[in-house]
Every structure is written in structure tokens, then in C-alpha cells.
Amino acid sequence: MKTVTLKRGLALALDGAPEQTLHDGPPIRHVAWQRPANTLLQPEEAVTEGQPVRMGEGLFRDRHAPQVRHLAPASGIVSRIERDSRQQLTAIEIRCDASMACRVERFAPVDNAHQLRDLLQRSGLWTHLRQRPFETTPPPDATPAAIFITAMDTRPLAADPAVIIAARATEFGIGVDALAMLTAGPVYVCQEKASRLPDRQCKRVQVVAFSGTHPAGLAGVHIQQLYPCDREHPVWHIDCQDVIAIGTLLQSGTLDFGRVIALAGSNVRQPRLLKTRLGARLDDLLAGQLRDTKNTDPICGSVFAGKHRRWLDRFDRQVVSSGMLSMRSGTAVSFMSKSGAKSGTRSGTRSGAESGDIQLNGFAAEPRFDRISALSMPAVPLLRTLARLDFAAAESMGCLDLAAEDLELHAFVCPVGNDYPAALTRCHRQLTGHP
Questions:
Q1: Is 389 left (phi over 0), alpha (psi -120 to 50) or beta?
Q2: Considering the entire predicted model, what is its pTM?
């Protein structure tokens, strides 16, 4: 097994680390489908508020990719439809009703790549794949040069994916072998050095161990180390829990909307791993879980760049609640003072990528940029071009195989508080011609 050791990164010792054992989460009364990030959608024939839907039923038809379905994650009544300032559909909330039957559709087994592609698109799991360059949902007819499966997480207070995989090892293995059908290139299963994931029979599946502090667990780091991509050679990546969902679909022919998240932080009564469901409403998930419910504002995602959401996003793997996170400004200051570093005042919420307003305050070369960076290119020149919104220069430096999460640490330690993740997202949108 190949091992990649990374010497750069940042480790934070924070209170409220989750117990790495699986527990049943509280009942979820509301769930939501949410728009995949950086994906161009043109919904038609959409459901309306007050309309009953069954789990697994289509919520709308996308004119750009009608073969890729977007399904209801639960049975119930459509209680809320959200749109952004440009009237683009962003979320469909469902009030769960356990008495309503699910949409029972037994998906047939697959024998080849064409059938698997069709299955993933009809089941809605296609939208859990991410393609780089540009960190978007792959086009329905795309073929990757390589596929990366993320089976590790180095974010502070994160769940250990090895624990989750161990509970569903058979389904995970089925999913890994299936994904190998979608590419003629390698399939990399990226894990921590100490993990012991089962070996696969397919010779193109390569298990690679990464050692180091965050961001050693990010897909962007794995891609740059093992198979750098460009416009002509796109690669895909997918989280291990979505691989398990694919394996479940292939094994039983049924959809799996269950997910495991780490509930962590000093304000959590019992930090642990919770089994919940895709798109769960935070109010339901956190009921009875927090010590202080008045002076806290839990975030979904990492402590470096988590967002205040109403529901779990499809790619959220942790929810953090801490006294240090109760203010929308100064979040990074609290954490960095604990880790002995310096930072400008920032919010734990980065809304610039969604709103179009990016917080950029000039550029100051910070020595820690390169110390914490695991990027294959020098960090300072790239960050300088993004701060100037010089996107052509950023592309020439190799920004295409990066995603917003790859620059979270740089924003976290930035002395002037620049939002580099949002600047990178704006860069990708301009380079692709998307609004």
C-alpha cells in the first residue's frame, strides 16, 4: 500500500471531540432537498407547497439534464420552497409523515458501465459525485480519468470514516467495485495510515494511505498528489458514505437516505456520532443535545468554514456547537488564540460564494500560508491572484483542480480576513461562464 506523508497543515486541540461510536439520532420531522453546489439547474414540473410526496419520488425535472433525477429524501408534505435572489430553486422542505408509504421502486442489478450510469442518475445518487475541474456535478455523459474515494477526515472534531465503513463494510466494498466500472483509469481509496480497510479484487482499485494533519484528508490534496486533473482529463471524487449508499442500492435495489454525522463541540451534552438522514433539519437533530440553546449558533461543516444552515447539506459530515462559535464575527480569533496563531476577524459563515459579495481586503503575505498549505503550488502567488480577482492568472497557476474547501485554512489564518474560498468559487464560475 502506498503511503503519502504530508508535513504541512494545522492541528487544533478543541474541546468536545465526538465519541467514535455510532448512536441513533433523534426523530427527524423535517428534511430538505438542497441544490447541489456549483451546478446549473433549470427545474420544471416542480412540486408545489402543500403537495404530498413519497420518499424516492421525483421533485422536479431538470431541463439541462432530464435523465438525472432529484428525489424526495422522505415521505410527507412539501412545507417550504426556497429560492435565492435570482429566483433560482435552492431548497424544498418536506414535513415528514411516517404514515405515508414510500415510493417502492426496486432498481434492477447492473452488468456494465452504461447500466450503472443510468442507475445512479435515476436513483439521484449521481448528484453525490463531484467533478474537478470546477467542483461540480458531472455531466450525464462524462467519463472521468480517475475516481477518488475519500475514506478519511482530518477536520477537527470529525467522525472517523473507518468507524462508519466498518459498520457497512459489505456495502462499501460493493460500491467501490461498482465505481471502477465508470472509468478506465485508477480508483483511489484514500484512507488514514492507521486504517485497515478491506482489499478490493479489482486491480485498478488502489488503497493509498495519507498521513498528516488537516488538510491531509481533503480530496483536493489527494488529487494533486496522485492524479492532477485539467479540462481535458477531469477526475471525480466521492465520500465514503455515498459509496455505501451506492453499494446498498446495488445490493438490495433500495434507496438509502441515512447518513452519519459527528455532533461535537464543548456545548454538546454528549459529543458522538449520530445516525440521521440526508437533509435533516437542524432544529430536529439538535433537540435536547445542547447545554446552552440561547447563546450558541451551531454550524454545519468544519470549524474552519462551517455555515449556519437550516438543514444538513448533502456533503455535511459534522455539526459543531461551541461557545467559541456563538458569535458570527471573531470565530477564527477564538480558535487561533487557542492554537497559538494569529488571524483577522472572520465569520464562521462564508456566504460570499452564494451571494456574490466577497470579503477581500487587499493582500498581505502571511508566512503561515505556506506552512499550513498542502497544495502542490506555492500558496502565496495563488492567493494574491485570487485577492485581485485575476482569474486567468489563477487558472495558469493550477486553481482548476481546487475547490473552496482547499482554501479554508488559508482564509482562516489570513491577517486581513480575505475570503479565498468565495473568490475561488467566483473564479470557477467566470471560467465556466456560469452566473
A1: left
A2: 0.91
